Amino acid sequence: DIVMTQSPDSLAVSLGERATINCKSSQSVFSSSNSKNYLAWYQQKLGQPPKLLIYWASTRESGVPDRFSGSGSATDFTLTISSLQAEDVAVYYCQQYYGTPRTFGQGTKVEVK
Amino acid sequence: DVHLVQSGAEVRKPGASVKLSCKFSSSTLTDYYIHWIQQAPGMGLEWMGLIDPQDGETLYAEKFQGRLTITADTSTDTAYMELSSLRSEDTAVYFCTAEKVVPPAPGPRWFDPWGQGSLVTVSS
To answer: Is A109 an interface residue toward B (CB < 8 Å)?
Structure first.
């Protein structure tokens, strides 16, 4: 199984400041056949299902604010919220879809400082 | 847009079974693989298994092998997840979610959309 490890487990950021979440996979999720990283990011607010933010490691889902961005390749990935808004308070998960079982990171809780 | 609507909360005693449903809002069930995800209270997301509604083929996580059955009814655009031999550790919210199949070369894709979740409480 591909193990996904996020860091930090939680972070508190002032409104308008940058939040950075890291995700590391135990093996590469990059496919040389199509040059894509099989990595997605989800946002889960309290009491709600996860919501897709980013796929292919860096492609923003339609309707997702452009303050959210994804980067990285192979085994190391980052989700950045460029200017934290109050509505961004949530738990964020990375997930690999390179292999089965599909696996998630343990989640990173983002709060307002 | 496709929406997934899940069945309501359930309470079961240890040793019992529970069957949850996940209804597609439109007749597109066979355009997707359906996955089920477990989220225990205060915990993260754990993949349980998937079904290809086109042929009924399933794949289950090792942790749930032998207790989990995922099925799909294409006539009603509904997927089901049945978990048996319930124990207290199975108390969780269960989500269905969909992975779009994009021919002609359908490869793995992300999960979108998600159902609203179904709470299962296992208690004596």
So the answer is: no
CB A3, CB A94: distance < 8 Å: no
Look at residue B22 and tell me whether its pLDDT is greater than 90: yes
The predicted pLDDT at position B78 comes to 96
Beta strands in A1-113 (DSSP E): 4-7, 10-13, 19-25, 30-31, 36-37, 39-44, 51-55, 59-60, 68-73, 76-81, 90-96, 103-104, 108-112
pLDDT, tens digit, 9 for 90 and up, residues A28-84: 999 999 999 999 999 999 999 999 999 999 999 999 999 999 999 999 999 999 999
Residue B60's CB is within 10 A of a number of other CB atoms, namely 19
Question: Among B109, B110, B116, whose Cβ lies nearest the Cβ of A49?
Answer: B116
> Do residue A42 and residue B111 have CB atoms under 8 angstroms apart?
yes
| Distance in Å, alpha carbon of A85 to nearest chain B alpha carbon | 23
Contact A89, B35 (CB under 8 A): no
